[in-house]
Amino acid sequence: MRLARIAHPGGVAFASIEGDGDDAQVLEIAEHPFGQPNFTGKRWPLADVRLLAPILPSKVIAVGRNYAKHAAEFGNEVPAAPMLFIKPSTTVIGPNAPIRRPSDVGRVDFEGELAIVIGQPVKNVPAARAASAILGYTVANDVSARDLQKSDGQWGRAKGFDTFCPLGPWIETSLDASDLSLKAEVDGELKQDGRTSDLVHKIPELVEFVSGVMTLLPGDVILTGTPEGVGPIEGGQSVSITIEGIGTLTNPVENV
């Protein structure tokens, strides 16, 4: 199932997307998408609604340096345990919403990532049962103010600006995410071309590790790390990240 959040003529709702291309239909879900969704009976063509961020997490937990080649491109070692940092919920935006690039922070980079969306409250869940805690997967862009990341040491400011965590276009609930193609383009030029099979710390291990630190709530998001090839973005450009089996997340960039 493809789960989305949409703006439709009557307001905002969760929805399931059925079909592809011009035939795609959006079926409204009552209340929330966790557990067995209940449908209201309302439906619209996908072209008649606006896709929003597919989930509004209470927290976004990101994993740093989880692809060996990305760690190497910045001269870093791969950490023995997952390196965690938090992005505020106010960083989250949806497809086609602008990444607002502060003009006074120096270099700002895109980072294409696979995102895990949690489906139920969990604490200390073992890796063997991690799949039961996962609602599905979506595409993420861990936008990063690179100069601040270097100067601050702590990454909260560099990763925490409003709009610095685009998510979308929807959540795919039926997916083996262990070996998927991940590509990022800036203005149509391929910049990243990796596979999730190259994750140093794999998805079940990440869910176990993060839930051992903090309780994960329905809708919380874990960003799994980015492959090599990240680079700067400027106002007027557009970033598109595509993950096999999910779709493409596109966001323009504007200077503020």
General description of the model:
This protein is mostly beta strands and 256 residues long. The protein is 11% helix and 42% strand. A hairpin with a 3-residue loop joins strand 19 and strand 20 (247-255). The chain is globular. It starts with a strand and ends with a strand. GO terms for molecular function: hydrolase activity. Keywords: Hydrolase, Metal-binding. This is Fumarylacetoacetate hydrolase family protein. Residues 59-253 form the Fumarylacetoacetase-like C-terminal domain. Residues 1-54 form the Rv2993c-like N-terminal domain.
Radius of gyration: 17 Å
Q: Can you give the mean pLDDT? A: 97
Helix count equals: 4
Please indicate the percent range of residues in DSSP E strands (runs of 2 or more): 35-45%
